[in-house]
Amino acid sequence: MMYLLALIVPPLAILMSGKPFQSVFNGLLWIGGLLFILLPFVAGQAAWGIAVIWALAVVHGRRSEARDRQLVEEALRRRG
Fold first, then answer.
1. Residue 43 banded pLDDT, cuts 50, 70, 90
2. Which is higher by pLDDT, 39 or 19?
3. What does pTM read for this prediction?
4. How far is it, in rounded angstroms, from Cα 44 to Cα 53?
5. Residue 46 backbone zone (phi > 0: left; psi -120 to 50: alpha; other: beta)
6. ∠ CA 52-57-62 to the nearest 5 degrees?
7. Which of 37, 67, 78, 79 is the most buried (most CB within 10 A)?
8. Three-state DSSP state, 17
C-alpha cells in the first residue's frame, strides 16, 4: 500500500514514513514537476520521476530499518 501511495502521492508516503522534512522538500519537487508536466517541458517529467523514486527509496528504507531493528532485538533477547 505504501508503495502505491509513493507512486501516486510521493510526499504523503514520505510523511507517513516518519520523515516530515524530507516530505516538504519532496512535495516542492513533486508539485513543481507536476506543474511543468502540464507545460511542454521535459524537466517536469524528470522532477516528477525523481520525486517518485525518492519516495519509493524512503518507503523501502523504512521497511528495511524495521526488519533490521526486529532482528537486532531478537538477537539481543537470545543473548541475554
1. confident
2. 19
3. 0.78
4. 14
5. alpha
6. 130
7. 37
8. coil
